[in-house]
Amino acid sequence: MVYYLQEVNRIMANILGAIENTISISLFNRGQAGKIFDEVRRCGAKVVMKNNAAECVLLSPEEYVSLMDEVNDARLLATATERMAGFNRTLVSQEDVDRQFGFTEENLADVEVDIE
Fold first, then answer.
1. What average pLDDT does range 72-90 have in this prediction?
2. DSSP-derived 3-state class of residue 22
3. Which of 7, 50, 63, 67 could form a disulfide with 59 if both were Cys (CB 3.0 to 4.6 A apart)?
4. How sure is the predictor about 4, in pLDDT bands with cuts at 50, 70 and 90?
């Protein structure tokens, strides 16, 4: 019973959120764009409806950048996870690499590395 009530509350919150975050395109046609943009900055994203269908989503520039950062982070995580799945767990020490390629301390002493 508790789960059922929690689920009903979650659904009602989603419906309320959808109603509060939905605006009609006719408000733009009535010259209220400035008011709508202020509300997006204050309260967050809005879904613009046209003929009872979602037409677009309005986001503040900060929200858009944050969302794109999250998308890019998710892509990087997916790539890293995929690469780690095929990773050969055999590790090679720096000394073994130096020996394999013939690097010595004297070779590396005069090397300058610029990292930008």
1. 87
2. strand
3. 63
4. low
Question: For residues 40 and 59, what is the distance between their CA atoms, to the nearest angstrom?
Answer: 6
The CA-to-CA distance between both ends of the chain, in Å, stands at 60
What are the φ/ψ torsions at residue 49 (nearest 5 degrees)? -105, 140
Gap between the Cα atoms of 104 and 15, Å rounded = 68
* pLDDT for the residue 72: 92
The answer to whether the CB of 55 falls within 8 A of the CB of 48 is yes
Q: Up-side HSE of residue 104: CA atoms within 13 Å toward CB?
A: 2
pLDDT of residue 77: 92
In terms of Cα–Cα distance, which of 58, 6, 8 is closest to 32? 58
What whole-number distance in Å separates Cα of residue 15 and Cα of residue 10? 9
Instruction: Give the Cα separation of 38 and 57 in Å (integer).
Output: 15
